[in-house]
Amino acid sequence: METVKLHGETDWNTEGSTVHSILFQMGKEYYGLPISLVKEIIKPLPVTRFPKSPPFVEGVIDLRGCILPIINLRTMFGLEPLPLTEESRFVDLQLDGLDIGIVVEAVSEVMHIPASLIEPAPPIVSGVDGKFLNGIARVQDKLIMLLDVDEIFSTWKK
Predict the structure, then answer these.
(1) Minimal CA–CA distance to 42: which of 64, 72, 12, 19?
(2) Longest CA pairwise span in the chain (Å)
(3) Is the dihedral of CA 88, 91, 132, 22 positive or negative?
(4) Which of 1, 56, 59, 87 is deepest in the core (most CB within 10 A)?
(5) Is the four-CA dihedral 1, 148, 43, 111 of positive or negative sign?
């Protein structure tokens, strides 16, 4: 298996010329993360909030004896937060020196995206700061924003 680095430092595990990623939804849009960063996907657990934490920090959860901070990407990206539903999930990500959970509205699928369908993110992207994207994939009838988690969480990585 080879490793591909797109715009940022995030390693996207690939098989041949495909990008192996997990797709999730925020609103009607689809986003992708490298599957290699996903430790697990869980149903939402009770969150303990912190006073004076940034608005996008939901708080922490106790995940089998480990404290996991939970981040709401919708709020981080300047979108209105939505209440949790039956489809909502917490995605436990393991980055270099950082374990973090993100709230997603729904996990769509795990997919091998052909690298030929991925284009660089335009400098100006409506709704999301372009520096948070590694690229945009056109798959069937949808656009998938491939997130640069190294850039998104760089402040907290060791």
Answers:
(1) 64
(2) 47
(3) negative
(4) 56
(5) negative
Contact 139, 126 (CB under 8 A): no
110, 30 in Cβ contact below 8 A?
A: no
Q: Where is pLDDT greater, at 127 or 88?
A: 88
* Residues 27-42: tens digit of each pLDDT: 888 999 999 999 999 9
Question: What are the backbone angles phi and psi of residue 86, rounded to the nearest 5°?
Answer: -60, -30
CA nearest neighbour of 67 among 41, 84, 48, 85: 48
The DSSP call for residue 76 is: H
DSSP H or E stretch at residue 135? strand 133-139
Per-residue model confidence as pLDDT tens digits over 19-28: 899 999 988 8
- Vertex 5 angle, CA 79 and 118, to 5°: 60
| pLDDT for residue 97 | 80
Q: How far is CA 36 from the centre of its chain?
A: 12
Quickly tell me which residue has 């988690």 as its tokens.
Answer: 149
The closest of 72, 134, 150, 148 to 104, measured between CA atoms, is 72
